[in-house]
Amino acid sequence: MAADATSSPAAPTSALRRFFAGDVWHSFRSSPVAMLAAAITAVCLVCALFAEVVAPHNPFDLATLELMDSLKPPAWIEGGESKYLLGTDGQGRDILSALMYGTRISLLVGIASVILSILIGVSLGLLAGFVGGRMDALIMRICDVMLSFPSILVALMISGIGRSLYPHAPDMLAFVVLVLAISLTGWVQYARTVRGSTLVERNKEYVQAARVIGVGSLRIMRRHVLPNVLGPVLVLATIQIASAIITEATLSFLGVGVPPTSPSLGTLIRNGNDTLFSGEWWITAWPSLTLVLITLSVNLLGDWLRDALNPRLR
Amino acid sequence: MTAPLLEVSHLRVEFPTRHGTLLALDDISFSIAPGEILGVVGESGAGKSLTGAAIIGLLDPPGRIAAGEIRLAGRRIDNLPYEQMRRIRGKEIGAVFQDPLTSLNPLYTVGRQLVETITTHLDLTASQARARAVELLASTGIPAPEARVDHFPHQFSGGMRQRVVIALALAANPKLIVADEPTTALDVSIQAQIIALLKKVCKEQGAAVMLVTHDMGVIAETCDRVAVMYAGRIAEIGPVAAVIHRPAHPYTAGLMGSIPAMDEDRERLLQIDGAMPRLTAIPPGCAFNPRCPHVVERCHSERPELALVGATSAACWRPVTLEGAR
Amino acid sequence: MLVFILRRVVQAVVVMLSVAFIAFMLFQYVGDPVTNLLGQDATDEQRTALRKDLGLDQPFPAQFARFVVNAAQGEFGISLRQGRKVSALIVERFPATLELALVAGFIALGLGIPLGVYAALRRGKASAQVLMAGTLFGVSLPNFVIGIVLIWVFAVELKWLPSFGRGEVVAFGSWTTGLLTRDGLLHLILPAFTLSAFQLTLIMRLVRAEMLEVLRADYIRFARARGLTDRSVYFGHALKNTLVPVITITGLQLGSLIAFAIITEQVFQWPGMGFLFIQAVQFADIPVMAAYLCLISLIFVVINLGVDLLYFAVDPRLRVEGKSH
């Protein structure tokens, strides 16, 4: 990103200031869509992180639930109360609060999966690119095969195997299996990108020179290859967060995702599906809307980021 | 003198961009007589290809013709609606582009592409069109044309492909061919063949040619007249022998001087100092003034028009032959 | 070319064997293989007999080989949850899923390609931009949300279409189809559109991107320079070149559709293989999971192979080892 050209060479420009003076920030400021998407994402993040503080009720505290208040419609419809802004479900839980807690779970699982994906993918990519030979061929074969299977299938299989192996697993383990399942669907893209960059760098002369004087491979990879792949990996990550969130929601909707004691948006939608026919549409509608809003915002941000970081389009 | 086939008058081509309007062609005027071969030579970015594109009406947007006229056989063609211009393309003006590999659709046989062009413009039955296609391949020197007409482009070598492209350009008997660097992408040994072929078939059909290239050797071999372009303007235009041996414009003189001669002993190649200005930074007055060895005060303020100097027309306030300087 | 086919077939076999291996591991080590084969109600005698029969004391490779032979014949034991032979269950459910996937595929292709072409040709116009904005929605909307919304609009509010099940089906031997009855067709509409939504947006985006790329090519410019009509240029030259890569991707989509049907079948209670599979995952029904895994892998591998061969048929550059002179 271009440094501020008019600053005198002696004045120290911090990295933060350089960022704000650069092209990426400028492109962000001039795109209302990107800013809106970022704003929505930020709001969701805040609600999720600080649900205990922001939410009007705690839907999981059984002591505060009133069965009398169950199945109330949103506040602006006849029969609703302003106390339960978006209505309540079959057990008197406030939908708005459940949304916030649910968003937290969805975002947590989504982000954790992507981070794990990146770790797995980048490591395997570096390995394949640097070691080469049979290892490279093997990893690439695995990538090819994994790419030809849809992600939902892989996630389901792993989830199913986990359940079979540990039928009465504690919640923590269920989460771990879930995150693992989703992350194993997304690592391939990172591996390929990183492998490509590694191959390019490996053949450069300065790398060969470094090896001759004994600099370790790990150090070379860290100092030279990683900075180059950061951009594409970042773009991939934003796009994949949306897809990870959707995969988690789908798995939870199907009943094989998060444990029922920690409902995510997918679980909420599943719960509300039963009452759709009797007319209590709000129980499903609000979680669905929130889910769509989050994934749309993240996708838009990812799109914008990809265009902003693409030198060819500028 | 017979009426010119193509007449370009004061043509201006602009590119409106975010940073302002770029003037890519600035007041270009020239004409081509029927059956004549006009060479258009100049450095990359001088505007040669753009001139060709403007004539056939395929300027890439946002480029557009801002002023001037283009007349084909007396009829104005620069302001025609798309559909009418389409009918002129191929039928009255043919085009040959630089890269024969990418000019041909890899998924269609050569014959199909020929027949398609023929039936679009000429009223022939399918079998007549196919016969003509074979004939065209034969006339461009492709051996065994009856068999090869059903081959795909990737089954031909580079030189053969360019012959196919020439056949396609001539398919509907146009009177003018715009050839944009037709030999640049070919091996040197093939270049001579293709140029000779182009010259031959155009003479046979009586077609005029506008040959755009940066290769003076090709110009010398093939053309009747040549126009030298610089920074979107025509610096000099005239009969080939005159422009090459008695250039009037200092730029042309510099170009000719920089061509190494077989019979000369030289330590260093001659070159013109500096570089052609970018479209965004064309100096006022004569565009060549920063690099010109004969520059005077007037060159910085007034832009020269084309004026007859000896056998050629040059846009210069101090043409070389006038001063006798060389 | 024969070498190519041979190589691909060998690759396919290797992939199938790896998948079979994973399925085998599931069978042997997750849960009890004897229970997997006999069901939970088997007597002790039957178990001991089977244990001996299976040669569970035999070396690993022998057991694996036996599993592969069985699998190749479709023998996967008995469903732990339903107590019936897995092969029977799958045969029963397969037509429902296949029909759903095929219809969804047709919708995705039939709408996706024309819309993508339109978006490319009318680039920059408002209608095209609206379309592309719509595709962003399509990619962000999860399959099940689309299903729920469609159910709510068309089944609950408007009451035009049914919201679950397959409706009336006609049987041909062991194959059942819903395409021949009005009721069956009505039941097919909502699930098919739901399933096709994601693929539809993908195809639209792909076709548009490819077409824009193709329209920039030199041969398109040359075609225009020869005075060919817009129709020839767009629908003759450009479209054909656009469809070549699109064909391969859409071929692969069929497999994807069968997999995504899992979700759609759940939303619409569609009695297909996907529904069966979800129940298997929920109840740790290993034999069904293993069978589904092998079947899906087979379908994918066959489709991949088919698409590769299709590429050969369509792109002449791959067919003839060009002799140039």
Question: Can you walk me through this structure?
Answer:
The complex is a heterotrimer of chains A (314), B (326) and C (325). Chain A has 314 residues and is mainly alpha-helical. Chain A has helices at residues 15-21, 23-29, 32-49, 51-54, 95-131, 133-147, 151-165, 171-202, 205-212, 217-253, 265-273, 282-309. In chain A, 69% of the residues lie in helices and 0% in strands. Chain A is globular. An 8-stranded mixed β-sheet of chain B has the order 6-7-8-3-9-10-12-11, sandwiched between helices. A 4-stranded antiparallel β-sheet of chain B has the order 2-1-4-5, with helices on one face. Chain B has 326 residues and is of the alpha/beta class. Chain B is globular. With 325 residues, chain C is an all-alpha fold. Chain C has helices at 2-29, 33-38, 44-54, 60-72, 86-121, 126-140, 143-157, 182-215, 218-225, 230-268, 273-282, 286-314, 316-319, and strands at 170-172, 175-177. In chain C, a hairpin with a 2-residue loop joins β1 and β2 (175-177). In chain C, α1 (2-29) crosses α4, α1 (2-29) packs antiparallel against α12 (286-314) and α10 packs across α11 (273-282). The two termini of chain C are 22 Å apart. Residues 321-325 of chain C have low confidence and may be disordered. Classes of the chains: A mainly alpha (314), B alpha/beta (326), C mainly alpha (325). The B-C interface holds B 56, 58, 86-91, 94-95, 97, 99, 102-108, 116-117, 120-121, 152, 154-157, 160, 165, 168-169, 171-172 and C 217-219, 221-230, 232, 236-237, 240-241, 244, 315-317, 320, 322-325.
The overall pLDDT of chain A, averaged over residues, is 78
Range of helix content of chain A: 55-70%
Give the chain pair forming the largest contact, with residue counts: A-C, 38 and 42 residues
Order of the strands making up the biggest sheet of chain C: 1-2
How many strand segments of chain C?
A: 2
Main pleated sheet of chain A: none
By secondary-structure content and strand pairing, the structural class of chain C works out as mainly alpha
- Please give the largest β-sheet of chain C: 2 strands, antiparallel
Note the quaternary state here: heterotrimer
Low-confidence stretches of chain C: 321-325
* DSSP helical segment count of chain A: 12
Strand content of chain C: under 5%
Query: Order of helices and strands of chain C, N to C?
Result: HHHHHHHEEHHHHHH
- Fraction of residues of chain C in helices? over 70%
Radius of gyration of chain C: 24 Å
Query: What fraction of residues of chain A sit in β-strands?
Result: under 5%
